[in-house]
Amino acid sequence: MLGAIVGDIIGSAYEFNNTKRKEFHLFTPKSKFTDDTVMTLAVARWLCGDKEHRKETLVRHMQELGRRYPTAGYGGSFMRWLHNPEPQPYNSYGNGSAMRVSPVAFYAHSLQEALGLAKISAEVTHNHPEGIKGAQAIASSIYLARHGATKREIKSYAEEQFHYDLSPQLDDIRPTYSYDMSCQNTVPQALLAFLEGANFEDVIRIAVSLGGDSDTIAAMAGSIAQAFYGIPQNLASYCYALLTPYLRTILNKFEESIGVLTPDPFDIERFIKAQNDDNTYQQALKEILQGHKTSHWIWYIFPQLKGLGHSTYSQYYGLADTDEARTFLANPCLNERLREITNALLIYKDRNIERLMGSSIDALKLKSSMTLFDAISPNDIFSKVLDVFYDGKKDRNTLQIISKTFNGHISNN
């Protein structure tokens, strides 16, 4: 189901700023998870926690998670349902039923079970026949893709069972396609994006380039593409990092329950690769031991939180939060190197930090990095750097970001 989350996050920046081109930035400062992700994870939590798969349990999980993330972008009718003490289905044929259904296809042990669970997951809100059909079409396509069906077979099944017309070419649809939230006018488009795509990323790019409800179309198409192609590590880890710790926990438990093991979901190995390329870490250590930074390596030697910089490097090597920072520090190689080069800094305790780091900007990045690691490992070598070079003062912006993500709560704006 991570494919749905990746599609949601990539499409989020273009939902109300549509693009009709496949060439666009996959991630921007506006990229975020939306209601598609939150409700997908609510379904996953239901599947893990209630083996009887009762509707009332699903409703409880959806309401609890929806209220926890109130700014995720819910529609008006669904928002009222979220806060209703006695919520009832409201005959919707919107694509909310199809956007959240992917976990059932990864959980189910048979096609019939996938169809049955999809129906239950839809009916608590979207009990209109089109709402149920949309959820079942996406779920069955994922299930078939997981079990080796060809695109031709998936297409035939969707056409025969759900009577969707999958004959049009998206190049013919794209110019006049506009915003539509109904299952009947988004599920076929998501299926076509999957059918026309050459790989996972291509499927997402095609889905977003249609315009309209881009995050939901990409979420639906991405969920099928994951089952068919898998997800590139760089896309998976980037989106995983954009989830809150609370949502990551739900995702991890679900994947564990279905036997999916992801040993490095943050892709912490990207730091080791960058440090090893051209012997960069040894060069960085040499510069610090000589008392003056002269080359460019700050992002992956002294990483700071994502969002504090705007360059491609700062986004790619930015740490999502204290969870990812702990994972960084738990890696034996990165832990040893970070402490070694931090100790090297302290050799020059009487030197101006801007001179030592080569610029005021890198001195500020170092302060941010030390503030972050001090937050997860207090009274350690990181606090010594803050005491020696910054008069014990910590980076305020880093502390603000940490406080926003405390206990898994984060603003989704």
From TrEMBL:
InterPro entries noted in UniProt:
ADP-ribosylglycohydrolase (IPR050792), DUF1810 (IPR014937), Ribosyl_crysJ1 (IPR005502), Ribosyl_crysJ1_sf (IPR036705), Rv1873-like_sf (IPR036287)
Under Gene3D superfamilies, the record lists:
ADP-ribosylation/Crystallin J1, Protein of unknown function DUF1810
Keywords, sorted A to Z: Magnesium, Metal-binding
Cite the binding residues for Mg(2+).
Answer: T34, D35, D36, D213, D215, T216
For this protein, what is any one GO molecular function term? metal ion binding
Highest taxon listed in the record's lineage:
Bacteria
A UniProt-annotated Pfam family: ADP_ribosyl_GH
SUPFAM superfamilies linked to this entry:
ADP-ribosylglycohydrolase (SSF101478), Rv1873-like (SSF140736)
Query: Which PANTHER family does this UniProt record tie to the protein?
Result: ADP-RIBOSYLGLYCOHYDROLASE, ADP-RIBOSYLGLYCOHYDROLASE-RELATED
The protein in question is named ADP-ribosylglycohydrolase
